[in-house]
Design goal:
Blueprint: E1 7-10, E2 19-22, E3 26-29, E4 34-37, H1 51-81, H2 84-102, H3 104-107, H4 110-123, E5 132-133, H5 135-160
Transmembrane segments: 57-81, 93-118, 138-160
Protein name: 10676_t:CDS:1
Keywords: Membrane, Transmembrane, Transmembrane helix
């Protein structure tokens, strides 16, 4: 999320090979290793209609997704440390947290941020021809997908598992 690796533009021509890395909060140039805030009104990044608003919405969505994801993992650790009664009830809260973290229909967090970046990637003139998705974009997709699978697994396990007292 914090690394400028969402989109990348690279030239392969020698001797002037250069790369431009776009992150949610900054843009870095590989030629002279300089970074600046992105998008910036001062640098005329916001000339296109709704570009800055969409990019900032994606950044805010990823920040909120990180907060909810952190809460989900914190709750997961507390459940693992807690007793049997806590584990029996925790699947409801955990599955909801993982769904909110990953599924766009419920909270519009991680997948909506990915969708904003993908939309701007394909429609904005800001990005040069040849710009590609980079590591952070791919990892966000993997994270959101795993979150959905984990949420469904926890929910189904909690729903279909018999209560502990039936095993006695």
């Amino acid at each position: 999320m914090l690394l400028p690796n969402w989109l990348v533009f690279s030239t392969r021509s020698i001797p002037f090979r250069t790369s431009v890395y776009y992150g949610l909060f900054k843009k870095c140039t590989g030629y002279n290793d300089t970074c600046r805030p992105f998008p910036s009104v001062d640098q005329h990044d916001c000339n296109e209609r709704n570009f800055c608003e969409e990019w900032e919405a994606a950044a805010i969505g990823m920040i909120l997704a990180a907060v909810v994801g952190g809460l989900a993992w914190l709750h997961l650790v507390s459940v693992l440390v807690g007793g049997r009664a806590m584990r029996e009830k925790a699947w409801k809260i955990l599955s909801v947290l993982f769904f909110v973290y990953g599924i766009r229909k419920f909270a519009i967090l991680q997948f909506s941020s990915i969708a904003f970046i993908a939309h701007l990637y394909s429609t904005a003139d800001t990005f040069y021809y040849g710009t590609k998705y980079d590591v952070s974009f791919v990892l966000a997709n993997v994270s959101a997908s795993l979150s959905i699978v984990l949420g469904i697994t926890l929910f189904m396990n909690g729903l279909l598992s018999p209560p502990e007292y039936m095993h006695i």
